[in-house]
Amino acid sequence: MAVTPLNEWRASETRTRPAQLAREVRREWERFVVDGRAERVRAPVLASWERSLVAGVDPSGSRLAPTAAAPDEVATRWETHPLSVAAPLIRHALESFAGDSDHLIVVSDANGLLLALEGDARVRSQAADTLNFTEGALWSEDDSGTNAVGTALAADHAVEIFAGEHFVEVVQPWTCAAAPVHDPETGDLLGVIDLTGLCHNVEPHSLAVVVAAARAVESHLRQLLRDQDARLRKRYDRQLTETRGRRALLTRSGRVLSDDGGWLAGTRFDVPPDGGELLLPAGERGYAESLDHDAYLLRELTEPRLRPTPLPETARALADEQAALRRLATAVAGGGHRQDIFAAIAAELGPLLGGEDATVVRYEPEGAATIVAGVGPCTDVLPHDRRVALDDTMAITTVFRTRRSARQDDDLRSRASGPVADDARHPGRSTVASPVMVDGRLWGAVVVSTTRGPLPADAERRMAGFAELVGIVIATAESRAELSASRARVVAAGDDALRRIRRDLHDGAQRGLVNTIVTLTEARKELEAAGVTGPARELVDEALAHARTANYELRELAHGILPSALTRGGLRGGIEALVSRARLPVSVEVTAQRLPPALEATAYFIVAEALTNAVRHAEADEVQICATIDGSVLRVAVRDDGVGGARCDASTGLLGLRDRAAAHNGELRVVSPPGRGTLVAATLPIADARAA
């Protein structure tokens, strides 16, 4: 067992053997890739894996980090970047360590863009060729998964990432340690300093070394800032002295350099680039005058005090709406189920307008509405998929008739009847509903209501704008669902066609071949009885051999199409029949529970293709097959100990299996590092297969 590091941001204590640690983190990574769980992995690494998964990074993919800037642009960015002034210090602090351990010295900006790399030319070339780890490449977590540069930026903490802790498999032969560097004036993240090398050159002190370098750089930047502050105070001392009243000298970032008697201590101002009026802490008005574009002279104005004004409500409302839409877009992009998308829309609606209840309804052709999602004390008592009749007391009826937003600020509901009215009836309820248009047709409506007083005066306008974008979200979700259902129908139709072909082969061509074999066998016996020898008997023997061979090949072909053992015995029966013909040891753990036929067929073909790869190409000595039910999903995993290097592209059958798994809203991953075997793992939702 690996030694748990005392510092969870460090990969290992010095007494842990790197090879042992690499094997153990690799096993944890494989487990996480298969079922999303890991036990013996550091908390910062697990958190980074989860962020990478949410960002859509493919752990088994060979996609290199994206290039975000051309060489000329990178050079310009580096020349103007605050860390470039510390380049000699970074080199001095790290070059001896990097040279002894064949590590690269790397500096990135706050977005993970690599700005500068130094080190051994051979290592630089290998990193560039295999990883695109070079100037101009983007190594944020969202783009490249768990790595020291991206994870240090995401967590704002120094971190070491070793071997299999990297989320993307192609990066796992490497080790890296990075520390963030902050602007001493604003506290903003400037970027990271990183040491990167191959795993066999791992150094136990690399994290400590890179942290020391980052702290030295921050200290250097603080000293440069102090020197600059002193120059500004000296340069503008006369203006401060000659200015009447309370005054202060500000940096371009709004930090107070010098003030009259400390009246602005601890204050930072948001100053317009060219200067202008400001609101001072106690409500007074001030004016910031730009001084040669490197400082501001702030004077207190003598007019009456003003009350501080908060952020405009319109700006705050717009920011809230944009944040809600980003969350909904993320949910759709993540492939969420339609019902989950509807629930997310309802959950976002209420807080936007200050409502207690929020509902999403879908209009039906016969003039009714179906509640597809809702949140709130009133809505929670209504079952989803409940159909309600439209009457004049409901805002959604007005929306249905006019295709426009509608408001209801009285207790008209008290005159309505029926279960929905009974649940929703409350004197003084304020309700706003807006139409949701999908592909130019009225799809439904979003509704917000409250009993805490009228909804905001601009509620209809805000709801209409939000509902327009909700329509796009719903259209995307429905298109995704329709595509998934269409793919599932294609797969099911294909399986039905395969069953018919197998039946036709068995009842037609195969039966004819069997009859031919019987006839030729009888003819051979007659020839033997008659003592016939020579060419005639040889021709009969040859014909019999060809017929038997053709029958065997046809039987194998029919079995490969869709075996009867799968139809009769389910997934376990099909896989056991498959394994019985394998020419190497295979261990099997397969559920005996019957599943939807389409799901069983997909799981069977995944196992069959992976087993074929292990037997024909992987030079494996052993194969492990596991197909178990985990809650609402079927998890399938086939692992061999062969040569690895399997590809999941158009040249292999694995790509078709990935599409087949996607048709069930499932996922298939292939982990196949050269020389380390192959893992084919699939997660297939059972409920979606039953619904199909």
TrEMBL record:
Residues 598-688 form the Histidine kinase/HSP90-like ATPase domain. CDD domains: HATPase_UhpB-NarQ-NarX-like. The lineage of its organism: Bacteria, Bacillati, Actinomycetota, Thermoleophilia, Solirubrobacterales. SUPFAM superfamilies: ATPase domain of HSP90 chaperone/DNA topoisomerase II/histidine kinase (SSF55874), GAF domain-like (SSF55781). This is histidine kinase. It is an enzyme of class 2 (transferase). GO terms for cellular component: membrane. It comes from Solirubrobacter ginsenosidimutans. InterPro entries: GAF, GAF-like_dom_sf, HATPase_C_sf, HATPase_dom, Sensor_HK_TwoCompSys, Sig_transdc_His_kin_sub3_dim/P.
